[in-house]
């Protein structure tokens, strides 16, 4: 087999701008921009990723502040217990949510046992289940930068604010949050970028009709076998996700 001759594969290799071939890539971009289905899938993916990232950052602050109140001798042990569930495989953790949220799962059975409901609630295969899975799956990506920033902050600033009569909420809003804002933004981006292209969680926890960018790209690659359109969709998603990285690099330090 000659290394200089492209061989059909899965997906097939194509030399860009090969003479004599059609403009499949240009047609794919035209279809992508004119078809509203992928644009809607992209918008839904960005919205779910943004909500998931905000949820991860919002949970990271109380978790990190609570961990820093633990005595230093026990802090590493508690941190290990917090991160221990994340040593399990990603797919297995998401499959655990299926067992929790299904009609015969632990959550519905507990609610029925407490007399709060009589029939199981349809919690599985919903946007709420997808958000719960994304927040749980990507929480460490936001927690660790926030924890590092809170560990390095100067406690004298908060003490000075307390001496001036500020309450805990005011101290957090005016002192702690501005000092650690860059770490919170870093955690947001570390969650937002992979969550925008997520495929496993919508497949396991989302409704069948939920069309997200990752699922749409997978369908074009492996179901429709429309590789030019799938490649164009992948590049479009990549281009959208590069934008927040560029804004992050230009943000004042």
UniProtKB/TrEMBL annotation:
Membrane topology: Multi-pass membrane protein
Residues covered by the ABC transmembrane type-1 domain: 42-248
Cross-referenced InterPro entries: MetI-like, MetI-like_sf
Compartments, record wording: Cell membrane
Taxon lineage: Bacteria, Pseudomonadati, Pseudomonadota, Alphaproteobacteria, Acetobacterales
Annotated TM spans: 46-65, 77-98, 129-150, 171-196, 227-248
PANTHER family to which the protein is assigned, alphabetical: INNER MEMBRANE ABC TRANSPORTER PERMEASE PROTEIN YDCU-RELATED-RELATED (PTHR42929), PUTRESCINE TRANSPORT SYSTEM PERMEASE PROTEIN POTH (PTHR42929:SF3)
GO biological process per UniProt: transmembrane transport
CC per GO annotation: plasma membrane
Superkingdom of origin organism: Bacteria
Keywords: Cell membrane, Membrane, Transmembrane, Transmembrane helix, Transport
Pfam families named among the record's database cross-references: BPD_transp_1
Classification via SUPFAM superfamilies: MetI-like
Name under which the protein is recorded: ABC transporter permease
